[in-house]
């Protein structure tokens, strides 16, 4: 069979697959803020300002109680009744506090694997719809980092009595583990003693047989 030459597009695709670094700074990239007043919160990169700064947005999907209430106060009806927040907000605002649209240095961000397809400098409404349709936050929650963040959040929200329950349960579990470990060690020592006695008896029998 004659060898077919690869096109330029196919060569570029092969090069991209072989790249070691795959988490690029680009619009739609999910990032974790590691420093500053919004440390430990998730956001999406929307646009690149310079080589060291980017625009990020939380799209009102993730937010704390106070931030969500402040946002809802702005959108009251004329009669003064509250607008009920969408179900999608309620599912996620407890876990990830709100991040407003702002410029942030790249040094403060940790780029994550997840990414959504959006245009540069898109509006927060469009960003919210794309996040809802792609279920990016659900995939992040299934990752190791997402699970760790959820556990940390639960521990932070725990009361003193719940912390005491966790401490007591851990202590009881350690006691049971130590008892089982000591039993195994003692059984192993007994078996070793029995094997040594058998070996001594065999040696004595061999010596007696050799003398005869």
Overview features:
five-stranded antiparallel beta sheet, 5 strands, 212 residues, 2 domains, 7 helices, alpha+beta, SH3 type barrels
Task: Break the fold down into its secondary structure elements and pairings.
Layout: H1 8-18, E1 29-33, E2 42-48, E3 53-57, H2 65-74, H3 87-92, E4 102-105, E5 109-115, H4 124-134, H5 136-142, H6 144-157, H7 160-211
Antiparallel strand pairs: 1-2, 1-5, 2-3, 3-4
Pfam families: Ribosomal_L14e
Biased composition (Basic and acidic residues): 184-194
Region (Disordered): 184-212
Number of strand elements? 5
Taken as a percent bin, the fraction of beta residues is: 5-15%
Tell me the number of structural domains: 2
- Count of individual helical segments: 7
Strand count, sense and barrel status of the largest sheet are: 5 strands, antiparallel
Q: Quote the distance from N terminus to C terminus.
A: 83 Å
CATH topology of the largest domain: SH3 type barrels
Helix content: 40-55%
Average pLDDT across residues?
76
Name of the CATH class of the largest domain? Mainly Beta
* Structural classification: alpha+beta
Shape verdict: elongated
CATH architecture of the largest domain: Roll
**Rg from C-alpha positions?**
31 Å
Spans with pLDDT under 50 lasting ≥5 residues?
63-96
SSE succession: HEEEHHEEHHHH
Describe the structure.
There is one protein chain. This protein is of the alpha+beta class. 52% of the residues lie in helices and 13% in strands. It has seven helices and five strands, in the order αβββααββαααα. The protein has helices spanning 8-18, 65-74, 87-92, 124-134, 136-142, 144-157, 160-211; strands at 29-33, 42-48, 53-57, 102-105, 109-115. A five-stranded antiparallel β-sheet has the order 4-3-2-1-5, with helices on one face. Strand 2 (42-48) and strand 3 form a beta hairpin. The longest helix has 52 residues, at 160-211. The protein is elongated and about 95 Å long. The termini are far apart. Belongs to the eukaryotic ribosomal protein eL14 family. It comes from Plasmodium ovale curtisi.
